[in-house]
Amino acid sequence: MSIELKRLIEKVAHMDITLLAGERGLSNDVTWIHMVESSLATSFLDGGEIAFVTGVAIGTSDELLDLVRSICEKNAAGIILNTGPYLDHVPQNVIEYCNQHDLPLFEVPWKIHLAEIMRIFSYTITKQDLRDTEISAVFRNAIFFPEQRDLYMIPLAHLPFQPEWKYTVCAVSPANREKYAESTLEQKASTVFGNLSHKYSDFSVFQSETQILAVLGNYSTKQVHSFVEDMGHYLKLAFPQSDSFLWGVGKTTKSIRCLYKSYRQAIAVQKLQSKGKLRPEQIFYSEMGLYKLLMNIDDEDIISDYLQNTVQPIINYDRDNNTDLMGVLRAYLENDGSVKDTAQKLFVHRNTINYYLGKIKDLTGMDLSSLNVKTQLTTALMLMNIE
Fold first, then answer.
1. I want to staple 184 with a disulfide (CB 3.0 to 4.6 A). Which of 124, 180, 220, 250 is the partner?
2. DSSP 8-state class, residue 19
3. Do 200 and 131 touch, CB atoms closer than 8 A?
4. Which of 312, 324, 320 is nearest to 366 (CA)?
């Protein structure tokens, strides 16, 4: 995880540290610290670090500017220059460059021990990481081990979340998620969390296998929608190579004890997204209509029995005869039972559609002209979508 640079600097405000440039970047997220004395050393930066520079390997102001430019290009969170025997002052061209790129630049005199600042920074970042990890672990346990309440109820008492709060789970992943290792998703989740933390509180964002999960504590419906919109924005920045994302937002729970339900609902919506059964903007479980009921059928035998008595004979016939009567049925129902519109969609003659519908009637014994039968078959297709 990370911590806002401004909060980190406050920890050493008493140590004669002065901001020279890049004030607009004080909201940057800091992931760690690093000593950087040459442009070659910037290759070790991953982004988000505070770079400490004493100038021991710097000969001219142009060399210092080149180093600062290299640090900036590595997306560092900020730079701390230690003025003294190696850097007697900070050149104006360096200050101007940092202002132009909103890169916070600080000066610390030689009399101040950099080691102490680095110790404080390391301790603060590590402490924040441990806290964020503890919070995400609590939510993981509540999601995946809901019956083992001691795993999340007891540690929750020491965190800024209440058991009786209402919670909402968002599940999201890039459509091409197979291209990303879990470690990469974890890093992206941390970046998104840091960006969102400037505006929101009482939430957690973490990686779980191929998913990035967000758990929101005591958010109103309006706040959930606002959070999702902002999260989508930061996800696009974090995954510039991804064209789209698979989303699912579960129903807000009554307490943390029901968190697993919101998670399962979010995943179910996401599965429908992956199958192309929903429009990209349809991501909220509360707006799923009939799917809300079907998603809550936990007994697989009930689903199997329902399909057996509706569409299974058609599925078996297609499998044995290499036909696509199920495709005809789906098109027929999607076109509100219009033979004409179905024929146009499938680019065949109306008589062909009537022949296929007759075959379906023979296989199932169901009269497709009946509204009740159409409803039963539509429900069967929806059940197949969520399996």
1. 180
2. E
3. no
4. 312
58 vs 21, 34, 37, 54, 135, CA distance in Å? Answer: 20, 17, 8, 9, 43
Helix (H, G, I), strand (E, B) or coil at 107: strand
Q: What is the dihedral of CA 192, 160, 199, 227, to 10 degrees?
A: 70
Distance between CA atoms of residues 365 and 363, nearest Å:
6
Under DSSP, is residue 298 helix (H, G, I), strand (E, B) or coil? coil
